Amino acid sequence: MTPAAPLLEVKNLNVEFRTRAGTVKALERVGFSIGKGEAVAVVGESGSGKSVTAYAVMGILDRAARVTGGKVAFGDLDLLQASETDLADIRGREISMIFQNPRAALNPIRRVGDQIADVLIRHGNVKRADAPAKAVQLLATVGIPDPARRAGAYPFELSGGMCQRVMIAIALACDPQLLIADEPTTGLDVTTQAVIMDLVMELGRRRGMAMMLITHDLGMALEYCNRVVVMHAGHVVETAPTAELFRRPRHPYTAKLIAATPRPGTALRALASIPGAMPNLRNVSIPPCRYSPRCERFGSDCERPLPHFGEGGRMVSCWNPV
Amino acid sequence: MTPLLEVTNLARHFAVPAKGGSKLPFMGGAPSQLHAVDQVSFTIAEGETVGLVGESGCGKSTLVRLLNRLIDPTAGVIQFQGKDLAEVPARRFVHTDQRAHIQMVFQDANDSLNPRYTAADAIADPARRLKGLRGAALKERVHALADMCGLPRELLSRFPHQLSGGQKARVGIARAIAVEPKLLILDEPTAALDVSVQVVILQLLDDLKNKLGMSYLFVSHDLNVVRLICDRVLVMYLGKIVESGPTARVFRAPAHPYTRALLSAIPSFEPGAHGGRQRVAGEPRSPIDPDPKVCRFYGRCPKGEVRCHSEMPALTEIGRGHRVTCHFPETGAVLHVPQPNLKIVA
């Protein structure tokens, strides 16, 4: 039996940004897939291209960006070739997104109930007259107390955690098949963070929804996701099932990243630091392996074009894996 | 041993317009009081690192600004090196000798550095104003500080926008220690940094402390970081300290229900561990005119008995420096913190 086709498959995706100071090769040959109902974490430091990947999938890249190659297959549709009308139908209904800063992502001068109703009317085949009631129902689903009253509130009247719940209600309004969560809990308190993530996972599981969780927090990836995609400077350096990635990281960068993260039972001096910084992606001559200038395992092989070694659901893009 | 800093019953209330009332002060009734910091007492010993944790809105920042003497307290004593700083109004504190002894590293190195000052200017400014250094002596001091903080000298002529996040953090630290403070207040110094840079900055802070013998008050929401570098920890909730004690003890056997919820919210580094853990539901009570008889955590607390609603618990010692503000503390109950059995290949 052949395994079922993945829900989302990103292949060899290249994205460039044209800036006054030159072209930034933000993503290079990025590839990964997400199966139906699967939770996949995309982790990496700031500037590694996590969000750009998500924006490319959603087709909401900045105007300065240009997709110079690759494929984003969602079912049998290539999202990169799809017309704006097709995309508009897919966004919100099939794929929806939770943004990083809920207060900035919500419309500040519309009541939150209306904002949810907008999505229901546009994407959810809900009649205009029924939308407000459905919106209140959704607010209740995401655990907002007194939803009927809160539906009439403006974003500034709600706490950060509440705003994020509203975002989740909007994202889940039409039962999407894939939810992209871009750092959904940054800026929230740990207690709220845990409650919000539990909520997303619970609602996702109940609806059989797949999730792409973008985070810089390895702890969250480990706790909530089945698989992890590790990015560094616009490359996917490693992909692996979560437990395996943490037990036996293969890419030197992944190993360092895990060893640098404070966690129970480690001492300050035992934490690893990663020397150097990400290469400047504006440079014309970036080494094929963008981690090589920082890498301790650097060897003569590393100047060759990057490999993508794969076996049993794992992929590592390194000539000298751990 | 006398502590470096001893805070007793410190409070700061802010007047806010009464609910439903007019915003004009002369139109009807006394304004309501927002109790940002309420009856807070704690000490910091010389050379000690004390962590301060709590949700946003719990009063951490107000407490920090009180200690820093940027704002005046409503009541209470801030005993620092044998002097009560609370007696000196904030606008006169700038001109006292004590100003140099309490310094601060701000949360966002981006917003807290003057964009039109070079790194050297930023570091030199406090040394010039508070230490009276000029000319060659000042330059030498700036170079020494840059070396101490691992900031390459060639970066000193750069402006903040030309520096990376980690380098800006180093400038912020160098500037704060330029006047040889006794107490350094660190407000989430690594919150904006990536993990790989965070490690380096935390190790730098630890080195500096050993070298210069400062005390730290480390404000953070990252409990994994607090566990790593703090000797003692203070947990704040709605203006009050609900639990304090040695870090290892508090993390192993938290006694206050809020601390327990806080600690079990940390991602555990255990795959798929999110089910079945303690969560704290709902939103905090309003800090405006709180009922002095009701425990601040009442309503969100899994206990919530009659006594919690009729009598405010006091900070009580439950064992070796471990204090808790709760009528029904969990004594002796060890919180299950899963120890990851992941072998890390470095």
Q: What does this protein structure show overall?
A:
- The complex is a heterodimer of chains A (322) and B (346).
- Chain A has 322 residues and is an alpha/beta fold.
- Chain A has a single domain, classed as P-loop containing nucleotide triphosphate hydrolases (Rossmann fold, 3-Layer(aba) Sandwich), CATH 3.40.50.
- Chain A contains 11 helices and 12 strands.
- In chain A, strand 1 (8-19) and strand 2 form a beta hairpin.
- Chain A is globular.
- Chain B has 346 residues and is α/β, with parallel strands linked by helices.
- Helices cover 29% and strands 21% of the residues of chain B.
- In chain B, the strands form 2 sheets. In chain B, strands 6-7-8-3-9-10-12-11 form an 8-stranded mixed beta sheet, with helices on both faces.
- In chain B, strand 11 (316-319) and strand 12 form a beta hairpin.
- The radius of gyration of chain B is 22 Å and the shape is globular.
- Chains A and B meet through helix 7, helix 8, helix 9, helix 10 and helix 11 of A and helix 7, helix 8 and helix 10 of B.
Average pLDDT taken over every residue of chain A: 89
The number of distinct helices of chain B, counting runs of at least 4 residues, comes to 11
Return the CATH class of chain A: Alpha Beta
Quaternary form: heterodimer
Kindly report the spatial arrangement of strands forming the biggest sheet of chain B: 6-7-8-3-9-10-12-11
Give the DSSP E fraction of chain A (strand runs of 2 or more residues).
15-25%
> What is the name of the CATH topology of chain A?
Rossmann fold
Detail the poorly predicted runs of chain A.
Answer: none
Number of helices of chain A: 11
Span of the ends, CA to CA of chain A: 33 Å
Order of helices and strands of chain B: EEEHEEHEHHHHEHEHEEHHHEE
Which two chains have the most extensive interface, and how many residues on each? A-B, 52 and 49 residues
> Which second-level CATH architecture of chain A applies?
3-Layer(aba) Sandwich
What's the average pLDDT of chain B? 87
As a whole number of angstroms, the C-alpha radius of gyration of chain A is 20 Å
